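Would you kindly consider the sequence and fold I have copied below?
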Amino acid sequence: MRRSAAVLRVAVVSLVVLGLALPPLAAALRPLRERVASAGAAASSGSWADEHAFYKRDDNDMSPYSWNITGTYKGSWSFAGATNGSSRFLEFVTSKGDSVLELLSTPTKISGVHYVQGTITFHDVIDKSHDRGVAQIRLEGVYIWPFRQLRMVANSGADGEPLQEEDYFLSNPYHLLRIFSSQVFQDSSEEKNRRKNSLTHDMEKHCNIEIAAKVVRVSSNQNEGEHEKYRLEGLMESPSVDDDGECFSSILLNSTSLNVEAYYNKAVNYTLMVTFISFLQVLLLIRQMEHSNTQSGAAKVSIIMIGQQAIMDAYLCLLHLTAGILVESLFNAFATAAFFKFVVFSIFEMRYLLAIWKASRPLNSGEGWEIMRRELSVLYSRFYGILLGGILLMYELHNFLRPLLFLMYSFWIPQIVMNVIRDTRKPLHPQYILGMTATRVAIALYIFGCPSNFMRIEPDKKWCIAVTTFMSIQAAVLLLQHYLGSRCFIPRQILPEKYCYHRKVEDSTNQPIDCVICMTTIDLSQRTSEYMVAPCEHIFHSGCLQRWMDIKMECPTCRRSLPPA
């Protein structure tokens, strides 16, 4: 009852304001006020029917009864006149900025009047008591659709009653995904605590914040379908309660409603992109596993490199699953993306990780199953320990999230270092190098580089250029190692001594020597590049031994370990 009475009072005040501004309409509004006092008398007099004669609609315009202004409005704010932006409670960094208005409109018992609740968020504003760059004010008021007028005042919910707009916000994917992205990618823990405090607490004691706006329907594009688009043009004033002047200068507001369906489609298209990227990564992993399907080939791959990529996919899986749980209407889309990331992480990358561990592990003939199982448990414990520790580290160092992401995108470096130390030959397939570089950086470029990303994160071109350049340099070094040698960019003066397989052999017996791999005779009178001599003095054809070393790094004759060729 108190809420209904407050609505009626605000409606009456708004109608009176309209009557003062438009004298011909004031007479038409008097029967409405009489109807509020006595609904029966107003109905019997037929004054409400006469009231419709004072406004006319365009025949091409939609019926005003269908004008539902519920939704999210994004636009700009600016000062009505020249001002330095100073105020008693807020300090405006610039003379104009961005604003977001979220409204929930519900019909009342008064025909033509809707009760409206919402919030307005100003960017480039510093609250002097909280020291932050965003100010948010709760609002309530009325929308009078016959005259397309919106009147709102500040409301903090201090009476302890929950606002109806909260239920709307909790089901609005645009609002929920903004909260999710801000908590994951932007806000620090201190800023989250500050957000709990009311920014209008002091202003409500000393200021009357009033907003008067006109609602205009905007023609929609063909891509938006049947979605109705509205524009709010109005003025925000703050007269002081104690007649001590304005709390801040008058502000002009200009906002346009957002198509939530189009925003929903953006989120769905993003999940489709992630799903397609995951499918490509599965194909690339299969190609790489076929390239290194031997024990010698798997031992050339860095286990740290694969583990770092597996941790990245695990984090992406958790993030998409959390977003799907938070935004119920988008659960299927985000859950699909999370599932594909889970497949990449848990099936393919963990399987490849285990194969690399087994290939690089020295074989002991007297080793039992218990020792192997214990070492395998240590491997998994370290992996999942790093996974959970990384989550805690990113939570504690939330303000340095982008440098941490930059560090995570250095996963090619362990493989580059391993190639130089061991002088390995072609451990990674070129398609795997190029494909993984492109797919890994694609999601980061969308989140931090796309101007119209659905997470509403401000683009950071410098960071995007830096991470793209960093990844390109790593991929270029790997390709150079693949085609020109693992140590092609290292000066020879600092390179360690390398065993030479192509050394001259003196044959004093003049007896033919057979290659035990192909079982054909080796002609030692030919060039040294035609045959290779192992450290154990066994001789093989160059092509035969190189193909053998791709499978096993041990002598085919005596089983002694062989150095890199």
In short: Residues 209 and 238 are 4 Å apart (CA to CA). The mean pLDDT is 75.
